[in-house]
Amino acid sequence: MMTDKFTWLHRGISEIFPDQPYSQDPNENLILKLTTLDRPLRVKLGIDPTGVDVHLGHSIPVRKLRAFQDAGHTAVLIIGDFTARVGDPTGKSEARRQLTPEQVQENAKTYLDQVRPILDFDTPGRLEIRYNSEWLSKLDLADILELLATMTVGQMLAKEGFALRYQQENPIYIHEFLYPLMQGYDSVAVDADVELGGTDQKFNIAVGRDLQRHFGKRTQFGLLMPILLGTDGVQKMSKSLGNYVGLSEDPLSMYSKLEKIPDDQVENYFELLTNLNINDIDKNPRERQKLLALDIVSQYHSQEAALEAQQTAVKMVIKGDMSQTEAVPEFSLASVEFPAKLFYVVSASGLCKSSSEARKKIAGGAVRLDDERISDQNFTLDSPADLDGKVLRVGKKNFVRLVKN
């Protein structure tokens, strides 16, 4: 049963498994384990460095890891430098491109810096940072055969992504079957009591429990957190979709994106990305957006930087002062194929949710390139070099500075 003492544990959680709240078995009742165990729990979170940027969606389980630290437990942060070479097939319609060790190493360089504002790196005994190449690279063929023998092909095909790909006759490569087993073996290697992950990670976390049981270890609890919708409020946060807020972004870029989060997502952002008491938050939608943006920017920069970003945003949005264009959030044109229609660039930049919405905004006279209003829906942009440094605006509140790289 949830008590005020464990509000931190349940906040932002979609599922805890196993979950037998009235059981007297601490292996089935996490609250009982928390209150009776005479040592800190070992709480695992794995991050595969398959890219260079961490965004707010990634931060959700990291924040829960910090909550466990604050409650006196040991965070075990695993940098998946070995598993990243395969790539998690979860939610993918085709095999991931395999990364080289050099690519993985390069990607991993900035990960710890980006999560440093969230985690407690300083209190002794509160954080272990491990790289899973430490144990996975040492497995020989006999060890791998033992792992493979713990699961059937039918069990693997029950994994959502695999099942869909098999049904659609998209190739599934044998090495992809190893990913859940390798991630699960991480839990064996670090003696995890709890593993954190998004709701899409239930299969992988359950495999970890099975492998712990196979190797005679105590089994972990799984804590699943929801997948964060992006700034468009429609699809999950993703850099490729342009609806993300990166942890390493400058204060104004972060603030400008967060103060425009759709009203129906604001409470969800408060619950998952802040420690504020939701019941105490102003009910005025605009004030809620501003508070959300201020709080999150403060977490990754400072309160002073967040307030300065807010003041700059007010000048640009309300007063129309675009003199500080170096502070305007940027959108790289590197991913755009030229010549390109303006409506496509407006949509790709995240200023509109879709190309059709962008067309309507252009036709309605709401789109400006610097000070020029553009109302031709078929307006074509010839070269990124001609656009470098220009400010693209939709209405008064939405704007980005275009950069060619």
UniProtKB/TrEMBL annotation:
GO CC annotation terms, alphabetical: cytosol
InterPro entries for the chain: aa-tRNA-synth_Ic, Rossmann-like_a/b/a_fold, S4_RNA-bd_sf, SYY-like_C, Tyr-tRNA-ligase, Tyr-tRNA-ligase_bac-type, Tyr-tRNA-ligase_bac_2
Domain Tyrosine--tRNA ligase SYY-like C-terminal: 327-400
Class in the EC hierarchy, top level: ligase
Swiss-Prot/TrEMBL catalytic activity: tRNA(Tyr) + L-tyrosine + ATP = L-tyrosyl-tRNA(Tyr) + AMP + diphosphate + H(+)
UniProt-listed Enzyme Commission number(s): 6.1.1.1
Motif position, 'KMSKS' region: 236-240
Principal location class: cytoplasm
Signal peptide residues on this chain, from the entry's feature table: none
Record-level Gene Ontology MF annotations: ATP binding; RNA binding; tyrosine-tRNA ligase activity
PROSITE patterns noted in UniProt: S4 (PS50889)
Pfam families: SYY_C-terminal (PF22421), tRNA-synt_1b (PF00579)
Entry's localization field: Cytoplasm
Keyword set, alphabetical order: Aminoacyl-tRNA synthetase, ATP-binding, Cytoplasm, Ligase, Nucleotide-binding, Protein biosynthesis, RNA-binding
Chain positions recorded as ATP binding sites: K239
Any single biological process term in GO: tyrosyl-tRNA aminoacylation
Stated family: Belongs to the class-I aminoacyl-tRNA synthetase family. TyrS type 2 subfamily.
Annotated function: Catalyzes the attachment of tyrosine to tRNA(Tyr) in a two-step reaction: tyrosine is first activated by ATP to form Tyr-AMP and then transferred to the acceptor end of tRNA(Tyr).
Assembly information from the UniProt record: Homodimer.
Classification via HAMAP family: Tyr_tRNA_synth_type2
Protein's recorded name: Tyrosine--tRNA ligase
Species this protein is from: Trichodesmium erythraeum (strain IMS101)
Name of the gene encoding the protein in the UniProt record: tyrS
